[in-house]
Amino acid sequence: MNRAMLTVVATTLLAALGGVAAVPAADAALTGVVGNWQTEPDDGAVGIVQISVDAAGNMQGRIVGGNHPGLKDVKNPAPAARDIALRGQVILRGMKYEGGGRWSGGTIYRASNGKIYKCNVTLDADGKLNVRGYIGFSLLGSTQEWTRYTGTSMDLPPAH
Known about the structure:
Layout: H1 3-22, H2 28-32, E1 35-38, E2 47-53, E3 59-66, E4 90-99, E5 102-110, E6 115-123, E7 129-134, E8 141-148
Antiparallel strand pairs: 1-2, 1-8, 2-3, 3-4, 4-5, 5-6, 6-7, 7-8
């Protein structure tokens, strides 16, 4: 192998190794956020949202349970979707990982009013998931603190 080819091989190998170190999967928050999370009550409805993260660190959340198993998406702006059950629907999407346990750039659907909001998600050191929905600027919004759900039943008792 000549010197030029050896340099190309060495450069390619170093770039590949450097790329491995830069992959977000090395961040503990990416695996720490995966699983089921219980939401705060919203108009009496409490949900269990299953969070998943793909290889690029993008987050999505799907309703997998809650205290109203048959609740329909009655406030959905699309009339055809109003008869669809909320359970199974993706409500958190397009979240890009920024590092340090923080995702942004995505949206969250709030079924209690049928609106979609911009969203930021942060996994705190205490293991809570802070989910902030907002319009325009992050200052104009509200934050819910989701807690890890470790139960086995996806049906919760009614909220009081």
